[in-house]
Structures are given as structure tokens and as C-alpha cells.
Amino acid sequence: MLCETVGVSTLHPAAAPLSFLLGSWSGEGRGAYPTIDDFAYREWVSFRHTGKPFLVYEQRTADAATGAPMHAESGYLRAVGDGRVELVLAQPSGITEIHAGTVEGRTVRLATTTVGVAPSAKRVDALERDLTVDGDVLTYEVRMAAMGQPMTHHLAAELRREAEG
Known about the structure:
- By secondary structure, this protein is an all-beta fold.
- 0% of the residues lie in helices and 65% in strands.
- Strands 1-2-3-4-5-6-7-8-9-10 form a ten-stranded antiparallel beta barrel.
- The termini are close together.
- The model is unreliable at 1-7 (pLDDT under 50).
């Protein structure tokens, strides 16, 4: 588990529409993009609550073949009413993302409203993320416009909810 909810047993009512995401998830994914070689990865994701009106999100990946660390990001997923959600996250590669979107049933659809890039970071223009939970399986797809390329498929994974322990 990446992190745990500490001393908080009550989910804030504003975060209730996102409760289906709570927990730790792990699984496998594949990535592709016109400017890089295709790749496979292992992934660990955690959504937890602190009693405030948001979920804390943490993610990390490792190369499926070697186990070498690849990517990480962390942030906050906020339900802002009327089925709307916002995701604010940061990556150690120097990229920040602010997404707006919707939650409908057990699906979250997000698109960036703002992408921030540090002077040394690779150019990223926009991203879209779709997450769906079916029972104890979380699937997602990420599309990206970056490095002069139009919006196109970048990542897809299937993660399973880990048993609490």
C-alpha cells in the first residue's frame, strides 16, 4: 500500500461520489506514443481520504521486465458538485496538471484545463484521462498531446484492488 488513511474513519460527504476509487490498486499497463518505443509497466495506485472534501491520489510505475522505477505522480481528486470533479497533480519530471471533468456512476472522465511545465521538462500540451471501476478492477486510458503530436492514445492499464490488511 502506498499510503493509508490515518486516524480518519468518516469520508467527507463531498467526496462520497468518488468513494468507489478508495483503496490501493496494482496491475499492469502498456504505453505507446509516436515519439517513443512501446513499453510495458507495473503500476501501484492509491486513493485515500483524510476526512476533507477530496481524495489523496498517489501513483508509481516500474518497468515490467526489469523492475526499474519509471513514473510517479501525486495529487488530489475533488468532487465539486453536480457530478463535476477536478484533479490537481504533480510529477517529479517537472509537469503539473489541472483537470476538470465528470463522475458518472463508476466512471471518471477528465481533461486538462492547465498543464504546467518546468523549464527542463518535456513539452506537454494536453491530457485526457478516463477511469472506470467494475467491482475490484480499475481500468484507465490516458491520451496525450505532447512534443508536437496531436491528442493520441498514450497509456492503458488494468489494476486490481488490493485486500486491506
